[in-house]
Design brief:
The structure is a single chain. The protein is mainly beta. It is 0% helix and 61% strand. The chain contains no helices and eleven strands.
Amino acid sequence: QVQLVESGGGLVQAGGSLRLSCAASGHTVYLKDMGWYRQTPGKQRELVASITSGGSTNYADSVKGRFAISRDSAKNTVTLQMNSLKPEDTAVYYCHGTYQYQWLSSDHWGQGTQVTVSS
């Protein structure tokens, strides 16, 4: 089992930066793909950025060039560096991880952290 805990959310002015961190604990050796999702009231949860165990990254078009995802396997952490923030980036951001043990595959989610970008 794996637990994911996000931190780093808060209030920031448009154009500013925030860095979100996701700390994983438990059987972290079985975590494969990791990612950050975000959700606003009345909207579907959307993928913001993802990173594979091999380090390959993927970003939503809306955040390309502004956000950067990275992971540190030794520290069992995944970070999302958010620059040039816009009001439309306001959302609850969730850390996500794919857990794979032999033929067992499951999804794990953090509880989310609020990011608010003011204009």
